[in-house]
Design brief:
Distance between the termini: 55 Å
Bound molecules: pyridoxal-5'-phosphate
CATH class of the largest domain: Alpha Beta
CATH superfamily of the largest domain: Type I PLP-dependent aspartate aminotransferase-like (Major domain)
Strand content: 5-15%
CATH topology of the largest domain: Aspartate Aminotransferase, domain 2
Strand order of the largest sheet: 2-8-7-6-5-3-4
Number of domains: 2
Structural class: alpha/beta
Helix content: 40-55%
């Protein structure tokens, strides 16, 4: 009998964004100059602040390489608590756990609150949405998430949520993500108030508030979190990946109700022991130094220039696309259906967004992510945490790729 593979693990899809990265890497290895608007990271265009790097070096120099305890280094945990207060959120050190990255933090929340032996065990996600919300519940309970499509502005409809929660008693948790990947949409206070009013009627349903883009807002839009309205139900997830361009540093955290966080800390300790200590020291020193958000606003401002440049160039080269202006994160998610159904130079019909994204990559070497992978066909995601020159050339090449299409 061969060793079996868990059916839950077998059901998982590999991360589509990482798959696209692999294609881009292959092209690069063949010497093709790839214009990468695929992967959602700022590095190397916007590097990790030097303060963090120095604190990490100092930690290594002082041999701070031991275990930090399952909740995280106490110095970092209290720095996170103080920093959350700057967002208007009150969390004691006992309500915070540090995890190896935001994705891992979501996983640890799911491991703590989802349970495959009870009826109320499913995760509800809004679509289009981040791919890991699809995969994580499968790994934890074997069940894929229940999906609820957002409206044409990519915003959840509270009345549809209400209807679903009233008619479906299998939902254990609802995940919200604002600013949003892949759309750049932001859930503002009135919407959060309406969502909280619905969710407060279902006290046994948890809310996972994915706030990994919590400092990246544009156009005078302000931070708002459902956690301030539903503190007893909400688990905030954030971390270094997007806030300080530290995707490879692998540090995330969860803040939530004390009782659950106590259990989550034990889950974390058993699964991961802790996050590497130099990274924890780096983030702790950063949070203490950036109390006025100078560094984080500087990152946001650099991204805003890139967003504006992308939008003005995109409007020129893809005039038939329909789109919303992203107000947060660093993604743009236009509706490209006007370009679907056409033929490429070889007479192949572009049947859908997957074909269109592949056409753009193969003919003019621009990496994008098809909307189907976020459960919104017809759209394409462009990540704009790239240099102005890369964005400029990518848009020029996009225009050329679209010009190759014929009715
Ligand atoms: C909405 C959202 N949540 C969580 C994550 C996970 O971040 P990481 O892969 O660095 O753990 C991402 C990464 O793209 C994301 O977009």
């Amino acid at each position: 009998m061969p060793v079996c593979i868990s059916p839950w693990a077998r059901q998982l899809k590999s991360s589509p964004t990482l798959e696209v990265k692999a294609v881009a890497d292959r092209l690069r290895a063949d010497g093709v100059p790839v214009l990468d608007l695929g992967i959602g990271e700022m590095n190397p265009e916007i590097p990790v602040p030097s303060l963090i790097k120095q604190a990490m070096v100092d930690a290594l120099d002082s041999d701070a390489t031991h275990y930090s305890g399952e909740r995280g280094d106490p110095e970092l945990v209290s720095a996170i608590s103080e920093d959350l207060a700057r967002f208007g959120l009150s969390y004691s050190d006992q309500q915070i756990v540090v995890c190896p990255g935001p994705k891992d933090a979501i996983f640890k929340v799911a491991l703590t609150i989802l349970n495959s032996t009870v009826r109320r065990r499913r995760l509800l996600m809004f679509t289009p949405g981040y791919e890991s919300f699809e995969n994580i519940p499968v790994l934890v309970t074997g069940d894929p998430p229940i999906v609820l499509p957002t409206d044409s502005n990519f915003l959840p409809d509270p009345s549809k949520l209400d209807e679903l929660l009233k008619t479906n008693d299998t939902i254990a948790a609802v995940v919200l993500n604002s600013p949003n990947n892949p759309t750049g949409a932001v859930y503002k206070k009135p919407l959060l108030r309406d969502l909280a009013a619905v969710l407060s009627q279902h006290k046994d349903v948890a809310v996972i508030s994915d706030e990994v883009y919590r400092t990246i807002y544009y156009d005078d839009v302000e931070y708002a979190s459902i956690a301030s309205l539903l503190p007893e139900q909400t688990f905030i997830v954030s971390g270094m990946s997007k806030e300080v361009s530290g995707t490879g540093l692998r540090l995330g955290f969860v803040a939530g109700p004390k009782k659950h966080i106590g259990t989550l800390a034990v889950v974390e300790g058993n699964a991961s022991s802790c996050v590497n200590l130099p990274t924890q020291r780096g983030y702790a020193r950063f949070l203490r130094a950036d109390g006025d958000f100078t560094e984080r606003h500087s990152i946001r401002d650099q991204l805003c220039v890139r967003r504006d440049h992308l939008l003005s160039r995109f409007a020129e080269v893809a005039p038939r696309a329909k789109w919303n202006r992203p107000q947060g994160a660093f993604y743009f998610f236009p509706d490209m259906t006007a370009y679907i159904g056409q033929q490429d130079a070889d007479g192949h019909v572009i049947e859908n967004d997957l074909d269109l994204s592949r056409h753009i990559l193969e003919t003019r070497h621009v990496v994008t992510i098809p909307g189907t992978l976020f459960q919104r066909p017809g759209h394409i995601r462009f990540a704009f945490a790239q240099s102005i020159e890369t964005i400029d050339r990518a848009m020029e090449h996009l225009g050329e790729a679209l010009a190759l299409l014929r009715p």
